[in-house]
Amino acid sequence: MKTNSFLTRVLVISALSATVFTGCRRDEEDNDTNAAGDNALAEAMFADVTNISDEAGRTGSLTNYRIDPNSNAILSQCATITFDSINGADVDTLTIDFGTTNCTGNDGRNRRGKIIVQYSGAYRDSGSTHTISFDNYFVNDNQILGTKTVTNNGHNAAGNLVYSINVNGSVILASNGGTITWTSSRQREWTQGESTMQWNDDMYSITGSANGTSASGENFTVNITSPLIRNMAFGCRRHFVQGTFQLTPGNRPMRTVDFGTGTCDNTATVTIGNNTYTITLR
Known about the structure:
Blueprint: H1 2-27, H2 34-59, E1 65-66, E2 80-84, E3 92-97, E4 103-104, E5 110-120, E6 129-139, E7 142-155, E8 161-172, E9 179-192, E10 203-213, E11 219-231, E12 242-249, E13 255-261, E14 267-272, E15 275-280
Antiparallel strand pairs: 1-2, 2-3, 3-5, 4-5, 5-6, 6-7, 7-8, 8-9, 9-10, 10-11, 11-12, 12-13, 13-14, 14-15
């Protein structure tokens, strides 16, 4: 009886140990998508800045020019655009001023503050450069800081304009949500719409890499594995509609972020190991 009692205790302890061990493994399952979401937000915010600068340069580089409120343009009636050309200077300045209070653009985002574009040469001229900076600029109460440089590399073999884009920036999240730092090196190919003055038919394909720090303070690296596609049609331009990137946060396993196959929505999937999670894009 003593032997049976001893064996029973051993079996019970072993079973409890197995249960505790299994429970710990479940608790430690890596399902953190925060760094992936923070990178996607920074990616979207700085792509948005380029889109706005493109629109301003293409449709209204005149003093106090105001975009037609009936258009489908991002700027809508929110922005005042001023153009400063200094005789003899190699660099001109375009200032896009959304004012000091939030104004809702036709893409649904609230903006305030200024985007400042210093440029040499027209946006479509090979070799031209545009350096973008900010003055108290906020999107949905997230403050955008840093610089973005766009260089026109001319047309590629497919006949599309290609730009080199480098960002050294950060996003201070609203409601004390922390700060995302983000540095990237990109190639942006204008795949559709260059030949027209319309904006809704534009499509862009983006490749490259990035690194940064999430709002929680974790370092991450990013590599685009399938081009990120930006569709500028009304209702689509807020987020990427297609493409994938791989993100590695700190020393943890790599995640794959997938924006889908072209549907205009505000979701993406994050795959970690054998598990896939759906995230809502901000």
